[in-house]
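quick one
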Amino acid sequence: MQEFDLIARIRQRAAARGDVVLGIGDDCALLAPPPGMQLAVTMDALNAGVHFPPETAPADIGWKVLAVNLSDLAAMGAQPAWGTLSLSLPEADVAFVDAFFDGFFELAEQHGFALVGGDTTCGPLSIALTAHGLIEPGQALRRDGARAGDDVWVSGTLGDAAGALRQWQEGKGGEGKGGQSGFLSAKSHSDPLFSRLDRPVPRVALGRALRGIASSCIDVSDGLLADLAHICRASGAGADIDIDALPASAALRAAFDDETRRALQAAGGDDYELCFTAASTQREALQQLSVTLALPLACIGRIVAGSGVQCDGMDAAAGGYQHFA
Ligand code: ADP
Ligand code: MG
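structure w/ magnesium ion:
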């Protein structure tokens, strides 16, 4: 199979959207953004062995590359719209591409997200997506709006994906690292921790609902404390976090001792939850929102004058994944 046959297969599956004037097939896509809206633009790449274990099921890779980008749009309060995809593949493997797009389009359909173009090349397995969202002017949830006295909140539970990665690295419950392919996909459908690693759920509805409520927001990809430190730096403030207030799933509590679990929650990464700040006058609105969205929202601390993130003596600066570190 050649490049153009692969592109034809992708094109067949790409869903239409009213504001896509011209999709896959020409030199550029033509898009008609609604008048008065601003574009929110983000890009995230996934490399085999860095962002996902090499045995990850292709459908999970397809889901994840979109999920991590939608998570960035969610963190700005933007409504997902369109994207372009760079696919670098070691070989023109039709089965891989078809499975990849099973996962990709499953999530895309949930958010009315249209794939409108991209590039397909031969090389080491690497996937990059540029995603565009729409946001009302002045409504974006930026990192620089936190103020001393604001509450710090986080959605969902923390540490599940990092816990799954830890188990995979330790080779628990299967063939382990470097083991037989299929291990992760077989695990992911039954194990709540592995499903958080392979199929993160971008909190798009929450991000939209936080417009006008949150004073700042970030998605948790590198670990809670590291990502919250970005809010603090951008806002010129500090944060005081109660480690016992960090939300944990029953599965994480069952799988790890307390100390390990706390470390996974505070610094693990790959959560794709939203961490945001809001004035204390918003507490009732946020409790109501949690019920409406059927999504737990936990108040985990406070923004304070000063700088840096304090969390029960844990060194927040040491947390978080850093490339090239
Ligand atoms: P060009 O050489 O003009 O850049 P390509 O041959 O690379 O065009 O791509 C042909 C069409 O297919 C373009 O519209 C491009 O956006 C689209 N395309 C290529 N690869 C992908 C991909 N992986 N996903 C989505 N669209 C793609
Ligand atoms: Mg061209």
